[in-house]
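May I ask you to review the protein record following this short note?
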Amino acid sequence: STGAAKAIGQVIPELSGKMHGMAMRVPVADGSIVDLVAVLEKDFTVEDVNRAMKEASQSERYRGILDYTEDPLVSVDVIGNPHSAVFDAQSTLKIGDMVKVLSWYDNEWGFSCRVVDLIKYIAESME
């Protein structure tokens, strides 16, 4: 299982109790995936979702954290990728007011890169 859905509720209180998550163990070295389904209040298209994710990946805030690809992916493709998530644009689905998105990540390396970012941030704030 995974505690990610509960942790998101602690970080973003508005989402507390509104998410559920599960982890699937598969025989791969390190690549993992988030399979997220959400009900959206506004009308949208797959293109809208993909465009928003692409723009976010290029933004100052998420550059280096969120990656975006339109290429086909499998788990080994993300091993060694330093991003916390690689948004898989080919997998975006719309069913009525629900959207399903996939984001891949290297469970060990991506996390380690965020720890390094945090250490740098703390060091810079102490100067």
Notes: The chain has a mean pLDDT of 89. The first strand starts at residue 31 and ends at 39. Residues 29-125 form a domain with the Dihydrodipicolinate Reductase; domain 2 fold (CATH 3.30.360.10).
